[in-house]
Amino acid sequence: MNLIPSHPPRTLCIAPMMDWTDRHCRYFHRLLSKNAFLYTEMVTTGALIHGDHHRFLQYHAAEHPVALQLGGSNPRELAICAKMAEDYGYDEVNLNVGCPSDRVQNGRFGACLMAEPELVAECVAAMAAAVTIPVTVKSRIGIDDKDSYEELVHFVGTVAAAGCRTFIIHARKAWLSGLSPKENREIPPLRYDVVYQLKIDFPHLDIILNGGVTSLAQAEVILQQVDGVMIGREAYQNPFILAEADQRLFADSRASLSRSEAVHALLPYISGQLALGLRLHSVTRHILGLFHEQYGARGWRRYLSEHANKPGADEAVLLQALKFTVPDVY
């Protein structure tokens, strides 16, 4: 089978994170980086097929390039949802084969699917047949006792044969019993060497490394070995890490925004969302870390946390919170 056409290189991606990377978070991240590839929170096929799919699929045009991450294991249902993603204009649809939570396992999707590479291949083939946008897979390096390199190679090779060209690999195995999702992000050791070896053994595939990336300097080193880097919690808790990403990772000469400029750039978006009935807190909860380790960071967080939920809270709350900080000089 021919490989699925690939989108321009995903040099830097922002990980899909439940309850975090919603459309408001992604819009803010896009202000800081024009080139980073953004991902939605994982959405289950059941939520899209049987629920209010527009609520899950809506996004701002400025978010491009942006991918929809799906959770599911039924090829027909995944194909239906992949077509929804394409119809809504998403640049990619990604299958979650990495989440280790009990709820996900009970639904027979997420990391437990690594034990069924043939089923994952069937899912990818069905999705690819339904759309023209890239279908990608996000996985771990292994699960439980199925963590040998040979088993990982079998998984990647089987799914690649179904047409998947891009694999986002969280460089930790997952324990499906005994560890919480949080512990699965911290306790199993990172094995970057395993992901690097995958790129050597599958040079025709795009291999994106995820897990433990906390700086652009670290990303630059990793990019010497693989095609892309995915940053997760650091990009959320310290979003200003993205401000220099375009210049350092994409050779984009456009000037980056300062922290205060980013706040002012966000105000028109907030105004529009408030007019639609959104509460201010829905946006400001994603920008609490903007002044991470900077003067005034505590005051910024405290003021937003205390005032953004109040009735009638509007853009003025952000401007008042800015008074706790000092002007950026970049």
UniProtKB/TrEMBL annotation:
Catalytic residues, per the record, are C99 (proton donor)
User: What are the names of the required cofactors?
Assistant: FMN
Does NADP count among this protein's keywords?
yes
Keywords (alphabetical) are: Flavoprotein, FMN, NADP, Nucleotide-binding, Oxidoreductase, RNA-binding, tRNA processing, tRNA-binding
DUS-like FMN-binding domain: residues covered? 14-318
Name the positions where FMN binds.
Answer: P16, M17, M18, Q69, K138, H170, N210, G211, G212, G232, R233
Q: Where is this site: Interacts with tRNA?
A: N96, K182, R185, R298, R301
Reaction catalysis annotation: 5,6-dihydrouridine(20) in tRNA + NAD(+) = uridine(20) in tRNA + NADH + H(+); 5,6-dihydrouridine(20a) in tRNA + NAD(+) = uridine(20a) in tRNA + NADH + H(+); 5,6-dihydrouridine(20a) in tRNA + NADP(+) = uridine(20a) in tRNA + NADPH + H(+); 5,6-dihydrouridine(20) in tRNA + NADP(+) = uridine(20) in tRNA + NADPH + H(+)
Q: Which GO molecular function, any one, fits this protein according to its record?
A: FMN binding
Which EC number(s) does the record attach to this protein?
Answer: 1.3.1.91
PANTHER family per record: FMN-LINKED OXIDOREDUCTASES SUPERFAMILY PROTEIN
Family affiliation: Belongs to the Dus family. DusA subfamily.
- Say what the protein does: Catalyzes the synthesis of 5,6-dihydrouridine (D), a modified base found in the D-loop of most tRNAs, via the reduction of the C5-C6 double bond in target uridines. Specifically modifies U20 and U20a in tRNAs.
Name this polypeptide is given: tRNA-dihydrouridine(20/20a) synthase
